[in-house]
Amino acid sequence: MLQDVGLPEMYRGKVNLWVEDAVSRVYLKECWQDDPDILFLTAGGNESVAAILNDAEARGYANVVGFVDRDFGTSNRADWLNPAKGFRRFVPTVHELENYLLDDAALAGAVINTGGRASGEIRGRFEKRAHELTWWMACRSVIADLADAFIGEFPRHPKCPQVVDLKSAEDCIVGQEWFKQLKGHSDSATAEGEIRNRLTLAHTNTEQQAASDGWKREFSGKELFRDVRGWVYTEPPAKASPSDLDVDVARAVAQWQVANNTVPGEVTELRTAIRRKAGI
What we know:
Blueprint: H1 7-10, E1 15-19, H2 22-31, E2 38-42, H3 46-58, E3 64-67, E4 89-90, H4 104-109, H5 119-132, H6 134-151, H7 166-174, H8 177-190, H9 194-210, H10 214-218, H11 221-232, H12 242-259, H13 265-277
Parallel strand pairs: 1-2, 1-3, 3-4
């Protein structure tokens, strides 16, 4: 959690944007041509961003916002430009930020394409890998659904004066909607063949996505991106770490997209939305 000391200095930007990792920071910064009004801060994960935003709101920092991966959750892009919505946490329509990097033309044209890979080759490799990942993505999807059903509305700890005896303690738990629905979720999930049925349906969906452009939006961008990254970027600096390689390629893709006016519309809209949220 943030400490009092240094907060005014930390939030010195007109917009203070928390992102999950260095790839997100570098990619957005390049796409927005290092917008001087936006200060990028790296939190280290989705949950960390959420905790920091809650803390900043409690402290009265109205110009602190966050951008996180959607993963298997729900995007709020439809409301990004809606002034009536008070959220600070922006969630894209793609699975994760790396999905913006699944751009075969940008990877082929980027300066880091030391492997000399053509756009068609890169797209073919993406598609091949997507087909290999259909069961993996189906399994992850079912696990995410189960997690949402069983712990999505898990009760929060009560405030101090709220629980004073056995009855109020019991009511605090059994009165929760989560508890009321728990048995139904359990019965459904543990019915004979239920997990197999869920996996089969999820796999049908992921196969359809792999056979179309759906993988670009719905599959793990990190997994697809990293499968291609080293195959394209064959001459990285000595002793470069995997995270360094991710950042190098993300920066080069963003630079190519900016130069060729192909920055994803969602990324451009995000910049507009967070600036408006901060009143600039």
